[in-house]
Write a structure and sequence with these properties.
The structure is a homodimer of 353-residue chains.
Chain A: H1 10-17, H2 21-28, H3 36-49, H4 55-61, E1 67-73, H5 74-83, H6 89-103, E2 107-113, H7 119-131, E3 135-138, H8 146-154, E4 159-162, E5 171-174, H9 177-191, E6 196-199, H10 206-221, E7 230-231, H11 237-250, E8 256-259, H12 262-274, E9 284-289, H13 292-295, E10 302-305, H14 308-323, E11 333-334, E12 338-340
Parallel strand pairs in A: 1-2, 1-3, 3-4, 4-5, 5-11, 6-7, 6-8, 8-9, 9-10
Antiparallel strand pairs in A: 10-12
Helix pairs in contact in A: 1-2, 1-3, 6-14, 9-10, 11-12
Chain B binds a DNA duplex (16 and 16 nucleotides) through residues 7, 9-11, 19-26, 28-29, 32-35, 38, 53-54, 56-63.
Pfam family, one (chains A, B): Peripla_BP_3
InterPro entries (chains A, B): HTH_LacI (IPR000843), LacI/GalR-like_sensor (IPR046335), Lambda_DNA-bd_dom_sf (IPR010982), Peripla_BP_I (IPR028082)
Domain HTH lacI-type (chains A, B): 8-62
DNA sequence: TTGAAAGCGCTAACAC
DNA sequence: GTGTTAGCGCTTTCAA
C-alpha cells in the first residue's frame, strides 16, 4: 500500500499566510487574541488550500475528539435489526444525531453494549480509551445504569440520559411520555370513551411508569375509574396479546385500549380481529412510538409519535454546550411527543357501562 | 472542564512489562519478531492494566485510523428518514457494517453527501482530511460517481462500490439483482403464469438494468414473450401507479407483475385493489427489496430480499483485507438475494392468453 | 497580540 | 528479536 498522499496541514497554512502555527490554530478554534485583519488573512489561506484539521491530531494534543458515542443495548438492537419488523429507533437516532453533529463538526459513532452483563464496564472502558469521545448518549435501559453513569462521571465525559430523570449526573432528556399518554387518553375521552384500558410496558424502563401515570392522570381528571383496566405487558407482541385478552375478558365493556408500544398495540388489533371486534367501531386502539409498522396496519393506527430524532438531536446540542461550559437547563429536557390521528380511533359505537 | 483522567498508555504497559514501547506496539499489532514468552509477558501487562490503544495516536503515527466511512446520498436518505415509511436501508447498513467492524476493532462512521452537486468533492475531501478513514463504502448512486472514485483512488483509500460492476477501481459488490429477478420470474412461471409484467427502476441506478435483465432472461428461457410487458418506473410510488396502469391497460391478460422495488409494488397492489383485482388470485405481485413496509401489506408481499446488511458486512471485510494487502476476488462479489414467499403470489385463477 | 518550544500516544525506520 | 530515535499534526504552556 503506497503511503497516503500528503495532505494539507496546519504548517502549510502557516507558511502560506506567513504566520505561526499558533495563530492558525487560534483562527481554527475561533479563539480570542487574533486581530481581525490577521484572522482574515489566515482564513483566506485556509480556504485557498482547502485545509481541514485532522481530528486525530486535534485529539492528540487538545481535549476534543469531535466524536460523540451513541450507546444502545446490544441484544435488543440486534434483535430488532434481524426481525426487520420496521422498528426504526436506530435509524432515527442516527440521523437525528448525525445531522446535528455535522452542524458542529462532530461525528456520531454507534456502539452496542450488553446490559445484563458484567462486560458492560470493560466494553465501555475500551470504547472510551479507543475513541476518547467528547460525549456519550445513553438510551434505555442503559440511561440509568449506575455502572455506566459513574464510569462516565469518573472520566469527566458529559453524557445524555435519554428516558431518564437524571440520577447519575448526566443530562436527562425525556420524550414527553407522561403528557403524551395523558393527551392520548384525553383524546379517547373526548371521543366519548369512558372504559379505557391500558397495557403497560416493561418495568425495566422508567418510561413505562410515566406512560401509565399519564393515562391514570387523564382518567382521574375525568373522574373515570381505572380499577382492573390496567394490564401488565413487557413490550413484546406476545405480552400484548395476553394483556389484551385479560383486559377484554375482565372488562367486556372496554371500548378503547392504549398500549405502551406498537407491538402490543398490533397484538391488540389482531386479537380484536380474531374476536370479531371492529376497529375502531367496537374498539379504539392507540399505540405508543409510531414505528413504521403501525402505518401499514389495517386500519392505520392512531399513535403517539416518539420523537427519537429530535431528542437525539437535542442531546447532541446539550453535550456540546456542556463541553463548552455553557449553562444547561435545570431539570430534564422534555421533548414533546405528538398524537398522530389515523384510523384506529373513533367514537364508541356502543355506550359503555 | 477538568482535565481528562489519565489513561493507561503504551508507556505504562512497557514499564510494567519491563520492555520497550516498540515491543508493546508489536504485540498490540500482532507483528512478527517477538518471542512467545515475551509476547505473553506483555499481553499480561496489557490485560492487567486494561490497556486499549488510542486510535487517535495510532492514526497519528501509523497508517491506520480504524475508521471506515459509509457514504450515502444526502437527499434520498433524509427523505426516507423523514417519511418514516419503513425503509430500513441505513439501519441495515449500519448494523451489518458496524458489527463486522467491531470484530476487527474498526468503527463505522456515516456521512451524507450530495450527489447532484459540485459540493461532492469538497465534502468528501473534508471528510477524508478530518477522519483519514481506512476505507470508504459507496452506495448507489455514488458507487459509480467518477468524481468520488477518482478522489479516493488518488488518496489511496480502498473503497467498496455497492451496486457497481467496479469501474473506478474500487471493490465492487452486487446484491444478486440479476439472479434474484430471474428466480422470482421463474417462480411465477412455475406457478403457471406466462404473461408477467415488469416495472423497471430508475435508469440512474445500474441495478435497475440488472433486475430488468434477470426478468428478461427468465422469460426468454421459458420462451415467453416480453413485448409490451415492461414499463418504466423510477422507484417512486407515483411512478409505480402509472406504470401498473399502463401495464394493465395494455395487457389485460397480465396475471403477474414484478416491480423493481417495494414502493412500486405497493402502488401496484393498491391499483389492483381499486380495479377490483384480487391479489393473488387475479394478480400475483412480487416486490424487490423487502423493506418492512411489504411485510405489513394486505396480503403480505412476496418479495426479493435485498441483502443490505450482508453486503455491507462483506464490504467491510474486503476493505480490511485490501488494507492488509490480501488478494481480493477478481470480479464483483455477488451477495445472493433470496425470494421470500408470502401472500401476494399464487397460481393464476384465469388461464392467460 | 503573537510566536517558540514541548509534548500528546503511537509507529516507522533503523540500529543493535 | 529487541531497543532507540524521530516525527505524525495539532494544542498547550510560556515567553516575548
Amino acid at each position: 500500500m503506497a503511503r497516503r498522499r500528503k495532505a494539507v496541514t496546519i504548517k502549510h497554512v502557516a507558511a502560506d499566510a506567513g504566520v505561526s502555527l499558533q495563530t492558525v490554530s487560534r483562527v481554527i478554534n475561533n479563539e480570542a487574541n487574533v486581530r481581525p485583519q490577521m484572522r482574515e488573512r489566515v482564513q483566506q489561506s485556509i480556504d485557498r488550500l482547502g485545509y481541514i484539521p485532522s481530528i486525530a491530531a486535534q485529539r492528540m494534543s487538545g481535549s476534543r475528539s469531535y466524536l460523540i458515542l451513541a450507546l444502545n443495548d446490544r441484544e435488543r438492537t440486534i434483535e430488532d435489526w434481524r426481525a426487520r419488523q420496521g422498528s426504526d429507533w436506530v435509524d432515527q437516532m442516527l440521523l437525528g444525531g448525525m445531522l446535528k453533529c455535522a452542524e458542529y463538526g462532530y461525528r456520531l459513532i454507534f456502539e452496542l453494549v450488553d446490559t445484563h452483563n458484567d462486560h458492560v464496564e470493560r466494553e465501555l472502558k475500551a470504547a472510551i480509551a479507543a475513541l476518547q469521545p467528547d460525549g456519550v448518549i445513553l438510551t434505555p435501559p442503559h440511561s440509568d445504569n449506575r455502572l455506566i453513569t459513574s464510569l462516565l462521571s469518573a472520566h469527566n465525559i458529559p453524557f445524555a440520559q435519554i428516558g431518564s430523570e437524571g440520577a447519575g449526573g448526566g443530562i436527562p432528556l425525556i420524550m414527553g411520555d407522561h403528557d403524551a399518554a395523558r393527551l392520548a387518553t384525553q383524546h379517547l375521552i373526548d371521543l366519548g370513551h369512558s372504559r379505557i384500558g391500558f397495557i403497560t410496558g416493561s418495568s425495566e424502563y422508567l418510561l413505562s411508569d410515566w406512560r401509565t401515570a399519564g393515562w391514570q392522570a387523564a382518567m382521574d381528571a375525568a373522574g373515570l375509574p381505572v380499577d382492573g383496566l390496567s394490564e401488565q405487558g413487557d413490550f413484546t407482541y406476545q405480552s400484548g396479546t395476553a394483556a389484551a385478552e385479560h383486559l377484554l375478558d375482565r372488562n367486556p365493556c372496554v371500548t378503547a385500549i392504549l398500549a405502551s408500544n406498537d407491538q402490543m398495540a398490533l397484538a391488540t388489533l389482531e386479537l380484536a380481529r380474531q374476536r370479531g371486534l371492529r376497529v375502531p367501531e367496537d374498539l379504539s386502539i392507540i399505540s405508543f412510538d409510531n414505528t413504521p409498522a403501525v402505518l401499514h396496519a389495517q386500519p392505520p393506527m392512531t399513535a403517539i409519535d416518539q420523537p427519537v430524532a429530535a431528542t437525539t438531536s437535542r442531546a447532541v446540542e446539550l453535550i456540546i454546550a456542556s463541553k463548552r461550559g455553557e449553562q444547561l437547563p435545570d431539570g430534564p429536557t422534555i421533548v414533546p411527543a405528538q398524537l398522530i390521528e389515523r384510523g384506529s380511533t373513533a367514537r364508541p359505537a356502543k355506550v359503555s357501562a
